[in-house]
Structure formats: C-alpha cells, structure tokens
Amino acid sequence: MKYSITAAGLTAEPGTKVQGFVPVPGTKEQIPVTIINGREDGKIFLATAGIHGCEYPGILAAAQLAEALDPEQVSGAVILVHCVNMSSFLGRQPYVCAADENRKNLNRLFPSDGTGTVADLICRFLTEEFVRQCDFHVDLHSGDMVEELEACLLIANTPDPEQKAMLTDAAKHTRFRWRMNSGGRTEFYNSSAIDFGKPSLLFERGGAGAWSYQEAEDDMADLISLMQYLKILPEVITLPVAEFGQGEGKKALTLDFQKSLNTEQQFFVRHEWTGAEEGDDGFLIPFVSLGEDIREGQKLFEIRDVFGRKKREIRAKHDGHIVIISRTLSVHAGDDLITYGEIEKK
Ligand SMILES: [Zn+2]
Asked: Separation of 15 CA from ligand 1 center, angstroms?
C-alpha cells in the first residue's frame, strides 16, 4: 500500500515485511503475526491458522509463505496470523484453547464482545485487529488430532448472494477436490462474513495430528491463487519454498493463474456433520472409512458402553462421500464424529 498497515501494534511501511509476536490484551497470550505490505495499493488479504492448535499444515504453510513472499510482489497487503491458539499448539491440545480456564473451543465463540475468559478475549482481539481491516479472509484448518480428513473447502455462510458467487468462483481456482457451503454461524470465518461483511473461506487439509510438506504446499498454493484472483499478486509468480530441515535446498513453486481453474472440483449439494449426543459416552465403533461413498440409511457407527454393550447405531441421513471421520475408541457427548457430503450430479 502507499500507506503503512498496522495490526495489533505491528506496523509495516510500504514495501516492507514485519514479523513478531503480538500480545492479546488482558491475557498472557502472544500470537505470531507477519504483515507484508506492498508498494502499490490493493486489497488486504488475511490468512489465519492454528485456531485449533493441532491442525498443522496451515501453520506450516503460513511460515513458508511469510518467508517466501517479497513485498515487491504484493499490491495491497498480506497479513498472516501464524497460529492463533499457541497454548493449544505448544500444549498439544486438540480442539480447545488450553489457556482458557473453561477450555473453550475458540471456533464456537465468534463474534465475541470480549467479556468472558481468555478464549473470548482472543476472539474479540482477532476480529477487531485483523478482520475489520481485511478485504478477504481465509481460515486454515485440518482434521484435528483425532480426525482423518480428505481436503475440502468451505464457503462462508454469507448473507450476500453476490459475495457467495464471487467466493464460489474464487474457490474453483484452488486445488480442493471438494467444495461445500457452510451453514454455520459461530466459526471465525462465518463470523467474518456474517458480522463484518468480509468474503471468507475455510480450508480443511490434513489431519490426525500429522503434517506433510505437500499439504503445506497445497495450502500455500491455494492462498497464492486466491491472492492472484484478487490481483494482490501477479498472474504468474515463482516463489522459493523452504522445506525446513531438508538441507539448504529450496524448491521453487510457480503458479500461473491462467492454469489454475480446477475442473476436477466437485460440489456437495448438502452435507451432514454428525456429533455424539447426550448419553453416548463409551466406545465409538466405525463401520465405514474415510473416502467411502455411503448410502442413506447405511450404518456408520455403533455406540457401545465401556463394557462393550451396544447402546445405539448411527446411520447415514443421506447418500454421501465421507470427508472427515473420527478415529478414537472413546466417544463423549458433543464430539464431532463424521462429515459426509452428497456430490452434485453433473
Ligand atoms: Zn479446526
């Protein structure tokens, strides 16, 4: 930008990159942030990762992207919040905010008025310092430590049909095989769209407490494609990508926006997130696997008590393709168990 960009007290002058930990007021939390400010005006792109601290590919992608992007390539600005939930990341705590006395799930709290405990203060801080000034938001997730996942992209539950159409068009320039429309409300990206009017997407890539350079590269490539779509980055760009710990060698990632349309991408006309209900505590016994195509009424799980006695069955509400499945033996009321989507017929 031809002017400086400030977020959470960190200021990047035109043509510069700044990086540091920013404190969340009223807490002991520090969040790692990079701001890359170009010299020319353009949109402000916000990518946030690690709201669930054990969802690793996006956190790695943020680090790689922060290192690779040169402010001279940027028209507008890029703000990267590398890992929102550092207490969960460092503490290896899936789902919850470990620093919060009630161990709340950050991604169920938006928008927050900032009253409450540490997690509420983090939510308020994110929206006020970052979302308010951005033009586009992507929140990077994975299956959490206990979930297997096929990469899928969710479009925020925006009330604006033009914005939804633009997001759908932009999403077709990502590597995601599966695309769906969120019906949610309290997640970070949904709040960005619903409460602040910002176009926003959620990436789900990787899972089960694992990570790979390929997943990070895919996240990074998709963020770059979206920035190309928004004309923040040039139509053709080559970036050096560090694979930390892989010697001195850097590989080059070249992305040509003209070749980025994903003709393989498929849309879920509807999808189902099934969670455990009150009284479900015990064993989760699966009868299906990740990536399987299922039929309405098909048995997905048995819930059994810890003695192994059957309590109930969970069956598919409609036909679909399984993109997320929980792999724990344990089950407890409120746990996410499975996500499947009905593939659009062409
Ligand atoms: Zn998540």
From this structure: 33
Q: Give me ligand 1 centre to Cα 109, in Å.
A: 13
Using alpha carbons, list the distances in angstroms from residue 51 to 87, 95, 132, 147, 195.
10, 8, 18, 16, 18
* DSSP category for residue 240: E
Dist. CA 89 → ligand 1 center (Å): 12
Enter the CATH code of domain 267-343: 2.40.50.100
Question: If you measure from the C-alpha of residue 70 to the centroid of ligand 1, how many angstroms do you get, rounded to a whole number?
Answer: 29
CA of 13 to the centre of ligand 1 (A): 32
Expressed in angstroms and rounded, the spacing between residue 235 Cα and the centre of ligand 1 is 30
346 residues of the chain, pLDDT tens digit each: 899 999 999 999 999 999 999 999 999 999 999 999 999 999 999 999 999 999 999 999 999 999 999 999 999 999 999 999 999 999 999 999 999 999 999 999 999 988 999 999 999 999 999 999 999 999 999 999 999 999 999 999 999 999 999 999 999 999 999 999 999 999 999 999 999 999 999 999 999 999 999 999 999 999 999 999 999 999 999 998 888 877 666 789 999 999 999 999 999 999 999 999 999 999 999 999 999 999 999 999 999 999 999 999 999 999 999 999 999 999 999 999 999 999 999 7
Q: What tokens appear for 103 in the block? A: 């161990």
Q: How far is the CA of 231 from the centre of ligand 1 (A)?
A: 28
Measured in Å, residue 51 CA sits from the centre of ligand 1 at: 7
CA of 141 to the centre of ligand 1 (A): 4
Question: Do the beta carbons of residue 282 and residue 306 sit within 8 Å?
Answer: yes
C-alpha to C-alpha distance for 162 and 120, rounded to whole angstroms: 31
Residue 142 Cα to ligand 1 middle (Å): 6
DSSP string, 241-274: EE-TTS-S-EEEEEEEGGG---TT-EEEEEEEEE
pTM for the structure as a whole = 0.96
Classify domain 5-259 at the CATH class level.
Answer: alpha beta
Please report, for the chain, the start and end positions of each structural domain, with discontinuous segments joined by +: 5-259, 267-343
Same fold, 5-259 and 267-343: no
